[in-house]
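Run folding on both entries below.
>entry_1
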Amino acid sequence: MYNVDLQHSKKKYHAIERIRLLLDQGSFRETGAQVWNYAHQGDGNRAVPYDGVITGYGTVHGKPVYVFSQDFTVKAGTIGRAHGEQIAQTIERAVRDRCPVIGIYDSGGARIEESINALAGCADMLHWNTLASGSVPQISVVLGPCAGAASYSTALSDFVFMVESVSYMYVTGPDVVKSVSGSVLTHKELGGAKVHSELSGSAHFCYRNEKLCFAGVRRLLSYLPASCDELPPVADAPQLAPALPQDLIPRQAQRVYDVRQVLESVLDDGSFMEVSASFGRAMVVGLGRMQGKTVGLIANQPLYNCGSIDCDASDKAARMVRFCDAFRIPLITFVDTPGYMPGADQEHSGIIRHGAKLLHAYSEATVPKITVVLRKAYGGAYIAMCSKHLKADRYYVLPTAELAVMGAEGAVGIIHKKKLAAMEQEERQGYFDQQVALYQREYMNADIALHEGFADAMLQPEQLRSRLIDDLRIIGGKRSLYRIEKRHGNIPL
């Protein structure tokens, strides 16, 4: 029934083999195998097998999931009316039965010879992608071309997986782009896995081959609840992570470190799964476990632009916050940022609009929210990184924390601008250095925040893990007291 050899000749797995790689052995139950394409008029062949998409259900780690897998050997996996309806029905069943849905994409896009019938199939699919959003987890695995409407279906899902050698995703293919720009682009240059995992941010995970990719999908599912009705699963608690080294976070503001080491030191050993690792690198986001319980992680990354929040980092973090809030996953935020990224490029790219997404996402989130200030928390970024004012349930500072409107040099330059301008050069430098030292001593610490109640406590690094575990235990079942009657908010998209 399946033309497996044709797909193997392209050094790719067939649609049915991909389903078997994803699901527990022997668990797949196919639906829609007898569906025929009743709309195709192009070559008189109206009996297109299962209209090029294999659909059904099975289990991953013993838990039910729905799955659809496009078959490129049948009409290049293009989406006809029946094809789109089959996918839409699969997503609808996942919503009804309250379990995740995984889509495996290998498609040339809408089937041209079906005209508006093909668009109808695409529209049905995209409509159910949208309705399912926030209800059940949706995961897209791109393992071939993913063009036009198919690419929008992946964008409407929660997570997108790609493979370096076989995955290509674009709205319009290289031939069309070439005709418009005059330049020649390969499929990989236009929309390969590297492009979407590093530049566009449309892919969240990138792997070397299909087997590793499906292992990644299975791992991700182990962190997620079946639907928004359930709490995330609890894994067996592994060996505790080592304590956070005392000297990991430098006191000197100019020195950098890798915030991933901080995350790994408070999470269960080996449990951190980073999302969008190559995109928006000034922010690190992902999922991990604390005593077996799933948590969402958001952290500034001092290794990139000193942790300054740019447009991509803001989008990346805001999306992760909203996903975790939709699926009842507690959020832990680690702060070390001098603020939003300055400069004309960022202003013209819409840093105001993009930055506001992060503010909106955190303010709207009702899951348990815990924030830890590792070092710098300056200006608007102090607010946006889940401050107490955005209703963080717990807000902690380390001894290295600096909470202020801006850095000492900038603050002194503004506060004493007139006095400095009137001084001679030698006198000016000495006075400036003196005032910077005074500002650092008086204001570049967490004392005011602690006295005003904007921070709950100062913790030593070795206290972090145990305090976070205790907090998650006590606030894990919290109910939001801040409900304003409305249809929904209007996040600045």
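>entry_2
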Amino acid sequence: MALKIRRVLVANRGEIAVRVIRAAKELGLEAVAVHSEADRDSLAVRLADAAVAIGPSPAAKSYLNAEAILKAAADSGADAVHPGYGFLSENASFAEAVERAGLVFVGPSPESIRIMGDKAAAREAAARAGVPCVPGSEGVVDSVEQAVAVAAAIGFPVMIKAAAGGGGRGIRVAQDEAELAEQMGVAQAEAQAAFGDRSVYLERFIRRARHVEVQVLGDGRDVIHCWERECSLQRRRQKIFEEAPSPALSQGTRERLCGSAVALARAVGYRGAGTLEYLFDDESGEFFFIEMNTRIQVEHPITEMITGIDMVREMLRIAGGQPLSIRQDEVEVRGVAMEARINAEDPERDFMPSPGRIADLVLPGGPGVRVDTMLYPGCVVSPFYDSLLAKVVVHAENREAAIARMRRALRELRVEGVRSTRDLHLRLLDEPRFREAAFDTGFLEGWLASTATSPGSHA
């Protein structure tokens, strides 16, 4: 059955734009890249069938300019828009505008984005679907008095979280009533500044939590899961290193966790790729739903490696009117995959961004190695955007072999012209607690604070 779309505009930049363009071409679709002034010579522009300038370098004037993106789609003859991740990917109003323009939004419906993108509303939907949630407020809390009452019921410490938040922003932890009263207004102000919405809600803070997430795919009629990923290695609530499957889960827990994700996604008629995020309590063995990302995730390659499913191609197929191409009983876990995010940052200087021109580039290869990147020799790493340079992804028969393969791949990687986090990942691979998978969401920051960064982080 032929797809109902033929030309896809990629409303994003960097490695995810390259990723979508490649998937589109494998399906016989034409791909249109949009670009800011800073990205006019980007790899995505070079690979696309057509490219349209959408504004100056700052994202607010280009990649977040919905009007400019829709005009680019109209001018280029695109009939579908893939938002990638970040920017406008989880903006329900943008998805609606795409559909009003007569275009296909490669992702969930605006209604699904709106429900699952609001963390408080997502919790309510999860509760209705019988999915366990972290004990917390029933919806948003507006006042200190209301927050104190909720905290008294669920117990301290608590997390104050932006209802419209994402990417680890808009989160504060309060250990007692006095700190809650102090942090409440701060959290609301941060939420307003970051997301244009001051709404916050409360959750119990789990002291030894792992961050585990489930990848789902839906076609609006059926939903399947593609198992889970371990994403506990975080700095300032930003993921640094991921693996799949999670080394912490028993098979029984894994099946219950993934089954709950499918139940929730089905309850909202989910379409496209999405990720349901959970906290797993290492002490009790319980898991709790925390939020859903209604888009493709940065770390989707490790799920692709263990399942053999091309997530982005599947998104495009579904958007083109085709049903899921795989049944749940066909989704098997094969081996272990890991992803190291290589950022243009200097670990010796508190991870200060390191923009610049790539003077030389050597990417690793060989069996079981994949690199998702937008880099090429001579390209410029801009100071205007996220510092992600590349995702080094490996796949092997077990965790020990995956660690060895990742070490080999990172040693092959050479990026000259900017500082990078490559050497930090190499040190992490040698850490006994990492090798034993004895970590939680608080581990990485504690490890960074207790160990001196080794010299020579020029990758």
